[in-house]
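Quick one, tokens below:
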């Protein structure tokens, strides 16, 4: 089994080793997995192109490492625990043996339906066990999964299906979230009607095959239970090269459409397992729960792959933190005796706002490590999490990473290296962060700030953006030669610990969800009355960042509240409800540079309530609009 660091000194030694001899170090880590054929070179890389390969020449199947190899030693241990939306409905559990059987059945169904190695399968599903099972089934047969968060709209789903040229869509009939009953299959129907012609089959799962109101039409659509249940429960694991694609996951950037981040088999396997074991300090018999949705990278790496590779018991939750009330997370922690709990600052803040009496009702004494991810955690939320949930006994791991990094990059290791409120602290072994100034000059020493880059490849890093390698190069490897640029600003304190300040590009982080301002603008611009728009983020008490839209209209708007609702509707149509603007301000003009570029810096300041220190506005093409925008600011 992959190494688990036991104390601070060992961390330091291993870190130094990983930097001085990365190939030796990662070769040893990779040796703890089951390979069909050993690699002949640990790492081969070049950042300019970029061209990064790990465990070159190696062959494996990640599901043999997630499942088969554990069946021999812990076949009857629970691999996947599932807690349903309804608190009084029964939880489900799958042992390693059972999960392997279910994955094989699904894999056989996929094969029977013509899905093979290299084909793309798109998922649009709630948090039900079938999602994890089918994702692993794809990996079993070498098909590439592309999971789309089920909160995205039909249009957003269609864009992603088309970009990946997916041959199959796997969805459910409905999504039950709290008291909402969301018609998932309907969204898929709507998406497929938007000019999608690559999809040959749609598999629909249901939690209630007797009573579902969804009716399938045509021979394209099949029920999960009709195609999966009768299959044989063994299926050979396809031989994959280390660098074969494992999955695509779409994420937003500062420009254009979301891009498909590509991860590959070998390196992703080694790093997600390594980081899971070390950050969460999972011990045999522990129950681990990450509340993320599998539609995001956190769910891929730390609900499915990392924990299963490590032979852990991983829990998946169908519902929401506030149903039936704001004690649900803590009730589940007590009920399933959760030992490691991993969530997002936005959830912590939302639950903190509901009062201490919710966590106080439950026995949280089994919690050993608490995790946070997705956005900077503010001091107040950190302390509440530490005091009211961990009772001072469960170290908080503040894990900084990205869809593109595949796994946790900077974090303290639970109980092993010390945390510090609002600091992700130190890099994991093998990770070499650095700070640069805007000219790309490395900022050395401590107690400094800069743009966060990574100097050396790590096994689970992004390989390409699907179908557009040049975009990968432009976005991540061109800003600063020879370095991967994260898009984040960071500070390094006097002891070399990192604090992530936030995005320095036009990406907003709303409740831990990444949204590109350009995407929201494009959606808003679809409204007939819009001449031009500019979208920025602003500090929001619960969501971390809210969405502030400045819009120039054709003058036809007289009811601003109704207009805001209409804009919400178009944004929901083109992206999904997560991208709805919190604030809409109609402005007479937008501050622009002489070359016509919108000065977002000024708009960001106004949106966050600043009325002075707007910086130099004299170089603007239209300095007079600044006052007008300020006068109309909504706060
Ligand atoms: C962006 C990546 C990684 C899984 C969830 C988000 C921000 C992430 C932290 C943290 C401060 C954080 C960064 C990063 N972020 N973790 N612990 N502290 N900021 O993945 O959607 O790819 O977003 O989330 O700004 O660049 P993502």
């Amino acid at each position: 089994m992959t190494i688990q660091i036991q104390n601070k000194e060992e961390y330091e030694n291993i870190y130094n080793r990983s930097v001085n001899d990365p190939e030796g170090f990662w070769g040893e880590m990779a040796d703890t997995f089951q390979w069909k054929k050993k690699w002949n070179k640990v790492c081969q890389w070049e950042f300019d192109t970029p061209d990064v390969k790990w465990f070159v020449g190696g062959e494996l199947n990640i599901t043999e490492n997630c499942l088969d190899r554990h069946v021999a030693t812990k076949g009857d241990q629970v691999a996947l625990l599932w807690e349903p939306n309804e608190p009084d409905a029964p939880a489900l559990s799958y042992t390693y043996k059972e999960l392997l059987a279910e994955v094989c059945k699904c894999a056989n169904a996929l094969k029977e339906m013509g899905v093979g190695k290299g084909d793309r399968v798109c998922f649009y599903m709630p948090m039900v066990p079938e999602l994890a099972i089918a994702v692993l089934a794809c990996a079993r047969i070498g098909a590439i999964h592309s999971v789309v968060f089920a909160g995205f709209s039909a249009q957003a789903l269609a864009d992603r299906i088309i970009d990946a040229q997916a041959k199959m869509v796997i969805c459910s009939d409905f999504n039950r979230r709290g008291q909402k009953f969301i018609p998932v299959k309907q969204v898929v129907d709507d998406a497929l009607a938007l000019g999608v012609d690559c999809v040959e089959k749609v598999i629909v799962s249901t939690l209630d095959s007797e009573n579902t109101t969804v009716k399938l039409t045509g021979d394209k659509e099949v029920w999960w239970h009709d195609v999966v249940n009768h299959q044989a429960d063994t299926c050979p694991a396809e031989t994959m090269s280390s660098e074969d694609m494992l999955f695509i996951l779409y994420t937003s950037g500062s420009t254009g459409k979301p891009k498909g981040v590509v991860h590959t088999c070998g390196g992703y396997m080694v790093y997600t397992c390594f980081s899971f074991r070390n950050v969460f300090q999972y011990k045999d018999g522990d129950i681990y729960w990450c509340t993320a949705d599998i539609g995001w990278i956190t769910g891929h790496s730390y609900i499915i792959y990392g924990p299963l590779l490590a032979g852990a018991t991983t829990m998946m939750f169908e519902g929401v933190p506030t149903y039936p009330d704001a004690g649900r997370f803590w009730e589940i922690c007590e009920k399933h005796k959760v030992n490691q709990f991993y969530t997002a600052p936005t959830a912590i803040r939302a639950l903190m706002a509901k009062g201490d009496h919710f966590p106080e009702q439950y026995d949280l004494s089994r919690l050993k490590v608490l995790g946070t991810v997705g956005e900077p955690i503010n001091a107040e939320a950190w302390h509440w999490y530490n005091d009211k949930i961990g009772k001072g006994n469960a170290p908080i791991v503040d894990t900084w990473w990205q869809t593109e990094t595949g796994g946790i990059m900077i974090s303290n290791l639970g109980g092993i290296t010390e945390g510090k409120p609002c600091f992700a602290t130190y890099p994991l072994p093998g990770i070499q962060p650095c700070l640069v100034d805007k000219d790309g000059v490395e900022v050395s020493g401590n107690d400094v700030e800069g743009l966060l880059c990574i100097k050396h490849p790590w096994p689970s890093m992004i390989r390409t953006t699907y179908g557009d390698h040049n975009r990968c190069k432009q976005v991540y490897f061109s800003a600063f030669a020879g370095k991967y640029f994260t898009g984040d600003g960071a500070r390094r304190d006097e002891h070399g610990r990192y604090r992530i300040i936030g995005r320095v590009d036009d990406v907003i982080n709303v409740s831990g969800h990444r949204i590109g301002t350009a995407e929201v603008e494009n959606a808003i611009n679809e409204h007939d009355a819009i001449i031009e728009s500019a979208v920025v983020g602003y500090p929001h008490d619960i969501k971390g960042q809210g969405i502030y839209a400045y819009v120039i209209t054709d003058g036809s708007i007289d009811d601003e509240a109704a207009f805001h609702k209409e804009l919400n509707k178009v944004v929901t149509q083109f992206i999904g409800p997560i991208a709805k603007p919190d604030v809409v301000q109609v402005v007479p003009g937008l501050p622009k540079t002489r070359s016509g570029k919108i000065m977002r810096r000024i708009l960001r300041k106004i949106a966050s309530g600043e009325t002075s220190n707007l910086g130099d506005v004299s170089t603007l093409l239209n300095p007079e609009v600044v006052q007008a925008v300020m006068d109309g600011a909504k706060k």
